[in-house]
Amino acid sequence: MADLKHLDQITERVERLLLRHEELQRTNQLLMEQVQSLQHERDSLKSRLQAARGRIDALLERLPPMAEESASGGDA
């Protein structure tokens, strides 16, 4: 009888472990999807940042040099 009870306990533990394993696999899959989504968002933000920097650089090139502003007396 003790052996049968012990076998039932082992069977129950194995079943719980299998359920836990399945839960962890689902959680892992969800986390991997979240990582992919965040990587895509990061790449998109990097691209937008690069485009914004390009526009700022273009605007800065259109500004007159600082030395000329100082020489003209400025409007301060």
UniProtKB/TrEMBL annotation:
<keyword id="KW-0175">Coiled coil</keyword>
<feature type="coiled-coil region">
    <location>
        <begin position="7"/>
        <end position="62"/>
    </location>
</feature>
<protein>
    <submittedName>
        <fullName>DUF904 domain-containing protein</fullName>
    </submittedName>
</protein>
